[in-house]
Amino acid sequence: MIGYVTLGTNDLARGAAFYDAIAKELGTGRMMEFPTGIAWGNPNGGAGVALMKPFDGNAASVGNGVMVAFEAKDKDQVHRLYDIAMSQGGTCEGPPGPRGDNFYAAYFRDLDGNKLNAFVMTGPI
């Protein structure tokens, strides 16, 4: 079971506004905040996401093939999350739409280039 995922950032204040908007739509908020990072989620709830400056002091970089997926409650929320990401300066990696028979998703990158996804299962796996 995943407890949380950490993504790197080179500008915490800028990234925080992006994730505050995503978290608000998902019905959650900040659960931990430090000078070098912020975590969003619900304590004792599902997996959270954190945005942190790298511990080693080097620049944050994007992991090729790494993606964090946010589970939406329905297709409309997938669209809202995608629209929020775009309005906050994110970049499109694939607009909302069906991906296969029972999977509906949108793909985007945050302000540091981390790949994200908003999805909902629309039928049995």
TrEMBL record:
Q: Where are the transmembrane segments?
A: none
Q: Under what name is this protein listed?
A: Glyoxalase
Q: Which PANTHER family match?
A: BLL2941 PROTEIN, GLYOXALASE FAMILY PROTEIN (AFU_ORTHOLOGUE AFUA_5G14830)
What Pfam family is a match, any one? Glyoxalase
Quote the InterPro entries the UniProt record gives: Glyas_Bleomycin-R_OHBP_Dase, Glyas_Fos-R_dOase_dom, VOC_core
Q: Record's superkingdom?
A: Bacteria
